[in-house]
Amino acid sequence: MSHPTEGRAEGSVPRVIAWESTRACNLVCRHCRASAQREPAPDELTTGEVMGLIDEISRMSGGKGPHFKPIFVISGGEPLMREDIFDIAAYATEQGLRTAISPNGTLITSETVERMIDAGIKRVSVSIDGSCAARHDAIRGVPGAFEGAVRGVKRCRDGELPFQINTTVMRQNVDDLEAIHDLTVALGAAAWHIFMLVPTGRGKIDDELTPQGYEEILNWLYDAALDSPIPLRVTCGPQFMRLVLTRKQESETPPNLVGRERGLDRMSRGCLAGMGYCFVSHRGEVYPCGYLPVLAGNVRDESFETIYQDSPVFRRLRDLSQLEGKCGECSFVHRCGGCRARAFGLTGNYMGEEPYCVYEPGRE
User: Fold this and answer.
1) pLDDT, tens digit, for every residue of 125-146?
2) Of 41, 85, 106, 206, which has the fewest Cβ atoms less than 10 A away?
3) pTM for the whole thing?
């Protein structure tokens, strides 16, 4: 089965750029993509280098019209451990980017909230992987992490700074998801973003669910979204898009899923790696996503625009005719695409089939 070549045209201007501001972090999470450490790496991008990157992103997106404003996500490590973070956030806002930040919550103070608002940050995302201290702290690796995260988001709420809760699904917390959802709603979050674990960094294959387990939890998330007062979004579980498309035909009630509204939560397809999304590491390396360690280039050596638009890695990802196995034969390829990071993590081939998808094309 062949598909049109998407190459450079589709996704050639990123909608979301995640920048790993630092490797420094005060937690030691068992599933950390970055394998973060206590101290910053000596070769992290300087303030000037990051602002230069922001300039490039702003120029690159300028021709898309006044309403096209890429989202610039400041991640880590723990971004609040970087002293210039508010200056950088403010600069991104000044250059027309919609700026978000992803701290772990424990370092958020009332003053921090004010500074984030002054810098133009539109949303804060804080990860909560357990509904109580015992569950969350066991995953985050530091006693008091749960208390600190909850305290941090409450300060955001009190300061009227929108925040979302992120949760990584793994075998250690899959039985706790309903309680985490209820906590997320009770805290006043704008949305709940659910990440399906990808085995990279400190994340291990042994921490993942089984393929059938993924299918069951994705169906549960769809059901949860039917009644949820806040929108849900699934990341790194692209087969969820297949479930949405098929199950919407079975119900007259639309689920409260992220993607029904524009803005920070918009979702158009399953795997976005290289298809409107990319990741820039703390030392300027550009990857299709933070979980897919296939290097496309370095902004210290060439322009971000050249890397994103012309790198063989990105161009190959946009050419869906190169997908292999059942992903290449699937009728849902344009809406799902399979997780390229999980394919790489388990097989070494980022264009291989999604190894945790139970769907078999042609056997409907």
Assistant:
1) 999 999 999 999 998 888 999 9
2) 206
3) 0.89
Q: Select from 306, 347, 293, 304 the least CA-distant residue to 324.
A: 347
The pair of three-digit structure tokens given for residue 241, joined into one six-digit string: 């898009």
Phi-psi region of 310 (alpha: psi -120 to 50; beta: other; left: phi over 0): alpha
* Integer Cα distance of 54 and 96 in angstroms: 10
The Cβ of residue 305 has, within 10 Å, a number of other Cβ atoms equal to: 17
Largest CA-CA distance found in the chain, in angstroms, rounded: 57
**What is the CA angle 277-217-326, rounded to 5?**
60
